[in-house]
Design a protein that fits this description.
By secondary structure, this protein is mainly α. The protein is about 95% helix and about 0% strand.
Length: about 240
Amino acid sequence: MPIGVQVAVAIGSLVAMVAVCILVAVLLIVGLKEDQAQITTREVPYASAIAAAALSAKGIANDERGFLLTRDPKFIDELERRMGSARVAFDAAADAADTDEQRQAVADARSGFEQWVRALRSELATFQASTRRIETEAAIAPARELRKTYESSLAKADAQATSAIQSRETSVSDAASRSVIILLACLPIALVIGCAIAFWIVRTILRPVHGLLMLFGEVADIPAAAAQGTSRRSE
């Protein structure tokens, strides 16, 4: 194989290796950006919506207690407002859900919430119409049980949200670590190969060329030396 072809193959191999390393790193970075975008556009909104629904539900429970203790109608107005906020949060969670498990968890939590709301309204209506404690306790009991069921479903949805965020964050961290490792591993290898190519070029091409130049210099000096010798003899 001609020396020029050998040099081209060696340098081309080095360039190809560097290009492959860069390509792999770029692909990992693109994957990292996709995971980060997934966290921003899906996982965080889903978790935030579930948290908002849970906060509204806790507020409803507090308004319920306030009304049962004081019979103040302002607690009913606040309770109704929080119910609307909770439904908006459930809609947002359903839109942001990214997996079948998340969508099912939202559906279960929403169903449990609506059952609790119906029981809660029945409880409040019975409480308003009755002054007998035994009737009030009978009305409150079903709503409390449904609230426990609803909170359990909501806790499951919240756990899925937390798990999804942690999974994505782990994926982002792993992708970043792999990118750094690949670059750190490839750079020394590329440096070693580059040094080997440089040594090979010096040994295979430059040294013989230098020898030829030295030889040509000696040959060029022969006529001058001969002429100088002739001049000395004529003197």
